[in-house]
Automatic annotation (TrEMBL):
UniProtKB keywords: DNA-binding, Transcription, Transcription regulation
SUPFAM superfamilies associated with the record: C-terminal effector domain of the bipartite response regulators
Gene3D superfamilies: Winged helix-like DNA-binding domain superfamily/Winged helix DNA-binding domain (1.10.10.10)
One record GO biological process: regulation of DNA-templated transcription
Record's protein name: Uncharacterized response regulatory protein YgeK
Amino acid sequence: SNGYTYFDSVHMDCEKISSRYSSDNQLTNRESEILQLIADGKANKEIANFLQLSRKTVETHRLNIMKKLDVHSGIELIKTALRMGVCTI
């Protein structure tokens, strides 16, 4: 395995989730995709590399997601993602 299998499956999950949650929570498709990756435990740098974005862009998306979901910490963000069904334990 070349290390891409996991991300390929995450990407497919992100597409499903982004269409399901973007309208409900006014998250963009990209924000929904990033929320999924955050919920899966990926760091900003990993997300940036995977999505071919700058780390600053990912950080900006994270802040926008937190603002839209009215959460104030990374832990709250993960808890909210769990409640939304974005990820499971």
